[in-house]
Amino acid sequence: MAPPRSDVTVLFDLDGTLIDSVRGDFLACSALFAEHGGELPAQRWAEEVCGRPDGYAELLAELPGAVDDRFARLRELWAEHMNPGVVVLLPAVLELLAALESAGVAMALVSASDREWVRRWLVHYDLARFFRATVSGDEVANRKPAPDLYLEAVRRSGADPGRCLAVEDSVTGVLAARAAGIAVAAVPTELTRGLDYSAADHVLDRIDGVGALLGLPA
């Protein structure tokens, strides 16, 4: 049975969960490999980079030249592929956030990305108003899949981990939430659907399935 709606805190990931930034990230990484005559399979990117900020260094170490130079070029490609004209809100996100707010459900944002990136999109899409707390990757000692981000979000929002539901698109995020003792609803993206989400409590086709999990009317 779903818990009382007013007694739940929903902890949302950002990239790939609320905004469609993962495809731009993959395209940027792929373009960098192509510039060096290589190819980056989508499955490999999904497994090694999606939801894992530390994964970029390992990936770029394969390319010729200094890793710092490769990062600099990747940032240029990110700017090309991950701008406001490309990074859009995912379907049903605003409707779900508004419905949860109306139902008295507390919400927090838990992102492995840096504060500057998180703030950019919260402001651009006017999402900050929905969240009781926001925690970014550069505010904790260890990013996902470590539990630090979720534990800090629980602390800031005054929530009980046993009365929380995390919403994640990446396997890394699922593992982070589970390590913090939090139930997880995974919403895979088109690029990550082939990964193993068996650690999640629920695997949803769309984010609006979260409302049904909490007993909100359709």
Strand order in the sheet with the most strands: 3-2-1-4-5-6
Q: What is the helix tally?
A: 9
Number of strands: 6
The mean pLDDT is: 93
Structural class from helices and strands?
Answer: alpha/beta
Shape: globular
Q: Name the helicity range.
A: 25-40%
Q: Hey, roughly how much beta strand do the residues contain?
A: 5-15%
Please write the string of helix (H) and strand (E) elements.
EHHHHHEHEHEHEEH
Radius of gyration equals: 17 Å
The N- to C-terminal Cα distance equals 17 Å
Question: Please, could you describe this protein's structure?
Answer:
The chain has 218 residues and is α/β, with parallel strands linked by helices. Strand 2, helix 6 (115-124) and strand 3 (133-135) form a beta-alpha-beta unit. The protein is globular, with a radius of gyration of 17 Å. The chain is built from 9 helices and 6 strands; from the N terminus they run E-H-H-H-H-H-E-H-E-H-E-H-E-E-H. A 6-stranded parallel β-sheet has the order 3-2-1-4-5-6, covered by helices on one side. The model has no long low-confidence stretch (mean pLDDT 93). The chain has helices at 22-35, 42-48, 55-60, 67-81, 93-102, 115-124, 148-157, 171-179, 209-213; strands at 9-12, 106-110, 133-135, 164-168, 183-186, 202-203. Helix 1 crosses helix 4.
List keywords for this structure.
single chain, 218 residues, 9 helices, globular
